[in-house]
Amino acid sequence: MKRIVVAIFFGLVAGAICATGSFMAGILTFSAVNLLWVLLNRAVMGFAVGISGLKVHWAWNGIVMGMAVGSIFSYYFFMILGPGPLPVINFFVNGLFGLMIEFFTTKVFKQPSPAAAQAATR
């Protein structure tokens, strides 16, 4: 449970970073709805990273879960902006946010993934 809380917290931190960059770059217009959308997306990404039981290295877990959950955000950009480089770039940046969430959760706060915890008890 502690791993999930830590991962969601860092998802919200990632959301704050993402929202700040998006608003300052003019990618998204600042509104409460856009801010909540970004924070919710990154919090869900943190939740997915926190509960993920993929049996891969912790870094790959963060990248894969970040890209999988963050792809919703990339599709959102595709729908509001149309085809272009931004949705594709965002898709890969989501992997970096997932990696960041996983790094702080696993390495800094020492909360191993469920798969790693199971392997350690065997």
Describe the model.
The radius of gyration is 15 Å and the shape is elongated. It has one domain. It has 122 residues and is an all-alpha fold. Helix 1 packs antiparallel against helix 4. It is built from 5 helices and no strands. 82% of the residues lie in helices and 0% in strands.
Helix content: over 70%
Q: How many strands in all? A: 0
Query: What's the tally of helices?
Result: 5
How large, in whole angstroms, is the Cα Rg?
A: 15 Å
Structurally, how many domains make up the residues?
A: 1
Short description:
Helix content is 82%, strand content 0%. By secondary structure, the chain is mainly α.
SSE layout:
Elements: H1 2-25, H2 32-51, H3 58-81, H4 85-108, H5 114-121
Keywords:
single chain; 122 residues; mainly alpha; 82% helix; 0% strand
